[in-house]
Amino acid sequence: MLDPTYISMNNNPDRDDEGGTERGVATKTREKTKKPSMYRVLLMNDDYTPMEFVVSILIGIFNKSPEEATRVMLSVHQTGIGTCGVYTFEIAETKVAQVMDAAKRNQHPLQCTLEKA
User: Fold this and answer.
1) For residue range 35-57, what is the model confidence (pLDDT) as tens digits?
2) Of 34, 15, 48, 41, residue with least CA distance to 93
3) Residues 6+ apart with CB under 8 A from 33
4) Are 90 and 96 in contact, with CB atoms under 8 Å apart?
C-alpha cells in the first residue's frame, strides 16, 4: 500500500509537463484525542462535623437532591468514607477546595479528598 502523502511523478495526471511542477493533495494525520482521566471526590467521616452540614455541602456543592445527599452522608457516617461524585481533575480539585473552604469557614474538621477513578 502506498503512503497517501507520496505522489508519483510518472503517474500523476496533475503534473504540468511543461514546467515540471507537481500538484497534488497533501494529507496530514491527526492525533487522536483521548478522554480525560476521571477522579472520585470523597468525604471522610469525623466525630465533630454535624450530619446536617454534610448534607448541605452535598446539596450545595455537588448538586445532590436532599434524598441522595442524605444517602451519601449516611454512607460516610457508617463506613467512614463516601463518594460525592466523579469528575475530571480540574472540576474534582475545585470541588475539594470548595468543601474544605466551607468546612473551615464553619469551623468543622470535615476532610475531603480526590482519588483517580
Assistant:
1) 999 999 999 999 999 999 999 99
2) 41
3) none
4) no
Structure-block grid coordinates of residue 16? 504540468
pTM: 0.73
Order of strands across the sheet that contains 111-116: 81-88, 38-44, 111-116
Using CA atoms, how far apart are residues 108 and 44, in angstroms rounded to an integer? 12
Q: Would you call 91 helix, strand, or coil by DSSP?
A: helix
All three cell numbers of 96, joined, read 475539594
Q: How confident is the model at residue 31 (pLDDT cuts 50, 70, 90)?
A: confident
Which of 116, 100, 105 shows the shortest CA–CA distance to 46?
Answer: 100
Cell 477513578 maps to which residue? Answer: 117
CB atoms within 10 A of CB 58: 25
Residue 10: DSSP 8-state? S
